[in-house]
Amino acid sequence: MAILGEIIKGVIDLTDKFSTESNPVEEQKEVLKSLLNSAKNTAFGRRYNFEKILNEQEPSTLFAQTIPYYDYNKINKEWWSKLHDGEKDITWPGRPDYFALSSGTTGKTSKRIPVTNDMITAIRSAGISQVAALANFDLPAAFFEKGILMLGSSTDLTEKDDHLEGEISGISASKIPFWFRSYYKPGEEISQIDDWDERVQKISDNAKNWDIGALSGIPSWLELMLQKVIKDHNVKNIHEIWPNLQVYTSGGVAFGPYEKSFNALMGKPITVIDTYLASEGFIAFQERPETHAMKLVTNNGIYFEFVPFKPEYIQSDGSLTDDAPALTLAEVEKNQDYALVISTVSGAWRYLIGDTIEFIDIERAEIKITGRTKFFLNTVGSQLSVNKLDDAVKHLETVFKVKIPEYTLCAKRFDDDFYHSWYLGCENNLDIEKVVDELDSYLKDANKNYKVARSKALKGVKVNLVAPNVFHEWNGANKKKGGQVKMERVMGEEKFKEWEDFVLKLA
């Protein structure tokens, strides 16, 4: 009998029963007041007169009117760069002990995003809330005695001046509580290995020694790790190595495009739970099994604003226009994409995180990620967000009975005409003309703006098939394997030329 598991499951169930019904709108009001009060004596707080904003009956209105939107480049140039020069009390009291390095989907140059102790505490608190929510998933007691394999960035952080630097997954893993360490795999020693291939090899070498019940990590890199373990041990699926694997906690990107290829590595169905942990904080997690939507963390160090994701509010580089309206949680609607703007306990203020979301359940503050502001394909009026592109790829998987875990595209000019030029990561040989027709027809039916664009400036679709590993090699060459690295779904023409040259070199 799983005695320890019964105890842990009992504590989780008890926590769930005694937790009070939340009111996300009221929680957000309190979070904003707390943020403003904590930072009112910082250089940022004095510049924008947080004291005056706090005295308003509804601080959110004056807050939005007073403080401009920031993206990373703007806030780093005007404010965070002073932290690197040794100054303190800039956008948050004191100086951060950590900086999260994030190239994300944009390139080789790392952003250096401050991570304060307050943010570490907030991330841990959100993680505990997520664990408590496991009571909703009806998992057996034995599950809570199994190992949890977290495939993130190296926990061997770089010491620089008076702080440490690394990716957020590495920072978070380096701060795991003592009681969790016996469950945590691959363990501290292997997790400190910086070279991703070497770390995965060590994981594979030790795989049979571990009884893994849960996996956590970005889908693309986790798939590669699982493929390596399966190949090295000459088995058909990962359940032959880890028969008690029951849960996968996905994060960083939408799981949909990877669902088919991921399930092909399993011997039996497992529970997939979505999370949304960014370099800027723990944004949301899936709280209930009956939906894939994620609940925003509305009570814990992050204040959210939502900008309607419409072409008139989005500039060519993905940033917001100055006059773009920002809505509070009390004002949002369903069936509308929003650019997510956050203010946090790490001193990010009205910060465009770069993701777009849609509300699935407003009362519960449950959302799904729909794309990236920079990956909005609107060169010739087609207005395609990443979720629409993901849906189109899943449609191709169904029609042609194949797996397409990766893709990218560009609205590219051929002679004087624009085409959507796609690269699909697929191991199968397909009839390109049939793929083109199916893709074009699906997008016409699914998106009226695309259909209009096809009758005007957008002349058609072009498709190239490449092996999925080409995408992984591209990420490895341009950024770094593993961790928070994600594939660009939509590229500009200059970046796309680099991509096509890279593909030719590997051909």
From TrEMBL:
Domain of life from the UniProt record: Bacteria
Database matches in InterPro entries: GH3 (IPR004993), GH3_C (IPR055378), GH3_M (IPR055377)
Q: One GO MF term, please?
A: acid-amino acid ligase activity
GH3 middle domain residues are 297-362
Query: Domain named GH3 C-terminal: which ranges?
Result: 389-494
Its Gene Ontology cellular component terms are: cytoplasm
Pfam families recorded: GH3, GH3_C, GH3_M
This protein is called what? GH3 auxin-responsive promoter
Organism listed in the record: Cellulophaga tyrosinoxydans
